[in-house]
């Protein structure tokens, strides 16, 4: 089967391409830079002979038309994933307009199977949102008053740029579903793991925590998963499972921010001092940061969007179980260290001759080099 893929040089896209090629599928990538395709896929062991490229942007109707023409299936994974307020115009262009162009083209060419990669945050209504009443099974309340969100929950109307543009894209995808177009929508959680071609938001946040740039955390939490599990889930969809078309959470588990930091401590063997403040108290700080970020040239790792997700404290209903969280964190940290994005001390490797407690990182850096990380 020939699968056309947008966003194939991103974190989710590259790992999904690797999973598809391992299943024997051919892939056609829509890319702005042909050289980036090899840089993103080669570290994952992808047979580049099974991958062809079409040069263009997701907002270029002619380029998209050429990329999807003749394809049996489409994976639309192109997205700007960032809580950096400086990128709001880019997010509107790629996340919303790009989805409109890509899904319209796939529908016009009669592509038989379309998978649109949404985000859990598109289902998370935020402060000041207009919240539609969901069916009783869509959003339930636990005894601790935390909400569990199913895939049939209404699309949120958040104000934060990333989740707002992904919610807009979600409405476009649901519109095609309602018209009978064979669109499947997936909702990945916050994803971590090795080999992030662009050092995306979640990988950068983990790195910043280990670099000591995040001493304060909001309370609450969010779902976390492994990019490799989501990639396998996408490959399974194209091979007839799980559950066929419709909407699906991809594998993930809820972690409170305290559990997140505790997992990092366990994997690295580091103390990682942290202060946890009420998330809703930190929301005004996040808004102020977003305003300041528009004139401050360096990224400030305290975005409103990230605090907002923690404050919402939502959990996916029925998400498949991911691999153990310590494996995901360990592999992400090892990759960051192996690529020089963390020092040995930051990764918990300094002065170690064996793994730290909890089956963490190997202390011998030569092992990293042997594994090509």
Indicate the mean pLDDT: 85
So, CATH architecture of the largest domain?
Answer: 3-Layer(aba) Sandwich
Specify the overall morphology.
Answer: globular
Total strands: 15
Distance between the termini: 31 Å
Sum this structure up briefly.
By secondary structure, the protein is of the alpha/beta class. It is built from 13 helices and 15 strands. The strands form 4 sheets. It has a 7-stranded parallel beta sheet, with helices on both faces. A 3-stranded mixed beta sheet has the order 6-7-15, with no helix packed on it. A 3-stranded mixed beta sheet has the order 9-11-13.
SSE topology:
Elements: E1 2-6, H1 11-22, E2 26-31, H2 34-41, E3 51-55, H3 61-68, E4 73-76, H4 88-108, E5 113-117, E6 139-141, E7 147-149, H5 161-178, E8 183-187, E9 190-192, H6 201-210, E10 216-218, E11 221-226, H7 227-238, E12 246-249, E13 253-256, H8 257-268, E14 275-277, H9 279-293, H10 304-312, E15 315-316, H11 325-338, H12 344-347, H13 365-370
Parallel strand pairs: 1-2, 1-4, 2-3, 4-5, 5-8, 7-15, 8-12, 9-11, 10-14
Antiparallel strand pairs: 6-7, 11-13
Helix pairs in contact: 1-7, 3-4, 4-5, 8-11, 9-10
Walkthrough of the structure:
- This protein is α/β, with parallel strands linked by helices.
- It has 2 domains: about 230 residues, NAD(P)-binding Rossmann-like Domain (Rossmann fold, 3-Layer(aba) Sandwich); about 110 residues, no CATH class.
- The strands form 4 sheets. It has a 7-stranded parallel sheet with strand order 3-2-1-4-5-8-12, sandwiched between helices.
- It is globular and about 55 Å long.
- It starts with a strand and ends with a helix.
- The C terminus is likely disordered.
